[in-house]
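Known limitations

Files may contain more than one protein. Parsers should not assume a single record per file. Below, a two-record file is shown to illustrate correct handling: read the sequence, read the token line, then continue until end of file.
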Amino acid sequence: MKSLLSIALASLCASVLNAAIKTELVEYKHGDVTLEGALVYDDAVKGPRPGVLVVHQWKGLSDYEKKRAAMLAELGYAAFCVDIYGKGIRPPTPKEASAEAGKYKSNRTLLRERVNAGLSAFHKQSVADPKRIAAIGYCFGGTAAIELARSGADVAGVVSFHGALDSPRPDDGKNIKCKVLALHGADDPFVPAKDIEAFESEMRSASVDWQLVKYGGAVHSFTDWNADGSLPGAKYQEKADKRSWEEMKGFFNEVLK
């Protein structure tokens, strides 16, 4: 009996040791454009699990988003980092990133199509339950997450971390089927008061189940540990980062249960 118990324990330990957070690159298409996302999951979890779509900031899909996806995988989710720009398009400087992001921020229809292409690719991954998917995004990606909701996508909820909150087509709020959580730096110089007011008005007019949480003293990019303040108005703040992550976790416990 003792021997059998020892064997069972050894087998369990070996299984735990062999389990790992896996990252797989996934190519998919939007029209003729090839995109390359990253699927991240814990291979110790068996079968489909709730999924989280992760949308990158203005420099494109990077190790930052993959790390956030790994953190989600550790919580038991499957995460898919989408690629809005296209395979290999990763602008290295703020000037180039601004230009690339501007192509999509000025064309919300295209932005919605690209983020929905990522959602469709995620649906094809066996590790994710297509009926339990939410989306998050950082900066530019936060805007994309809200646009995903405005497109009428069938997701459980979206979370914007320090994303733009403008409302260029406020009537599209009526398309939103999911819950919306916006996590915002109260002192973010890149998001004017009029944009916040427009966002709130759109959500109210469309009777969306929405929340807006503001973090005092936080500016833009408050979750990005690479934001050192060299770009004025964008700087990491550990307190707001941790609080917003916990806010997201509570939100997911509600919408993905």
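...continuing to the second record:
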Amino acid sequence: MTRPARREAHTLRARSGVAADLAARVGKAARMAGCLVACLAVAGLGAGCSGDCCDVDSFPIPLSSAPLGTGPAGLPGGLLANAQSPTINNGSPFWMSIDTASPLTVSNGSADGSPQTVSLSFDILGAVAGNPVRARFSDIDVLPVPLGTIGDAATQPAMVFGGDLLRGFSVELRFSLPSMTLWPNQRADDSFLEDVGYAVIHFTPFGGGELDATGPADVLGLRGPVDVAPSRIVFRACGAPDLFDPATSPRQACCQRGDEVADSSGTPLSLLLATGAGPLVLTRSAWTRMLPGLSPVPSETPGMLYLAAAKPALAVSWTTLPEAAHMALVNQEATASADPGPCVELARARRIEWVAYRQSKYASEAICVQPCDTDPNEPDKAQSSAAYIEIGGEAANPIPVAIIADTDPFIEGLRADIRPEGPELDGIIGAGVLGKTRVEVDYRSSSMRAIFSCDGETNRQICWTGARCPRLPDQSTQHACFGLPLAGLPPLCADDMCGGN
């Protein structure tokens, strides 16, 4: 994907409620300073925000990275914003954790008595005191709870900006030079985003429900329980798959239905997106499943993981992934009834890219997809490939891992909140793991989605976005997938390594 195309996609915004023509929007879209975003009512605590409660200028808000913890030195932790409120810290700036895993916006408060929401107003500033106000939130219902420190024992956030407010926006997050941009929406459809190379990963928000806390008063002055809307994002992941490059990796024979399962590599995982954390946090059982695919086997060091949602801090074992071990987040392309899992869909996307690479660069070879990658209902047609983003570490910047006991109350509480609608949680993926990426978490579309790209990284072994590649219906059409030039199907397929044509 070219830089103009990437930039075009990121500035594709409609600044009014009028549905303009796509091409016109691409040509004219620009950031609008001083955009007033009305806080959208959501089911849950955020419903306490009404009218023009939120002024957001839709410019990037500079963020900071908290320390990682007692683990590998020098690696970034969770995301922190510089905030200010007349009723917190005597009106002086304070740290606010930006955490997609927190269902609520909360403030640091006492645990005495029955918890009740309070109304707070606050501004989000730049990363340094004195920077312009980037977002202003007025009369927001916030729940005071005891907060832990972040990254180390000294970094104490006074608030956590959580899912109840994030749900009102399409939230763009950059991790290499941390920033957050709050957009009112993302109007580009999946097809456009796929065409310019973004990995669009759809998600269903989990969690939510009624809390044992008292919410804001209604018009009669009566206070009832706090209802929380689901906002937790769980990704399908594949841990430590085999390395792959379409130009150099050998062709994989996958000759019949079922071979796609045996021919996949890596460990299927379910990971909660937690931008308030830094490392990849895995349960001991998930880490044990991954170990056979890791070489060399990493050593472990006992230590502590500091999270705002965990007080006291969590006892963990610290390690890092080997340089050759990657993490991939994979969209679900198959139907729920036929879902083979993220590692199988990742392997299929790679095989399809291997074929697309040769169809584009070596058309005379007449390469077609393997039999196991064809549509079971139409065997003469390929399946569409799943979108994914793959992240690898470097010797100087490895992927940090904190291993936590399966019985730890923190992870058990997260699992209980995801079940029964969601999968069994294997851990969380924090901001420090995503350092070479950028993502727009689009809560506002009817089908919520995370739109991933690599932030300036061109080495696919460090970061690679594989956009969904839709199959071609016949030899008369072409497509451009995986950053390759336009190409189509050969008139007749060559030997498919399985004895057929």
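Parsers that stop after the first record will miss the second one. For reference, the second record is described as follows. Confidence is low (pLDDT under 50) at residues 1-51.
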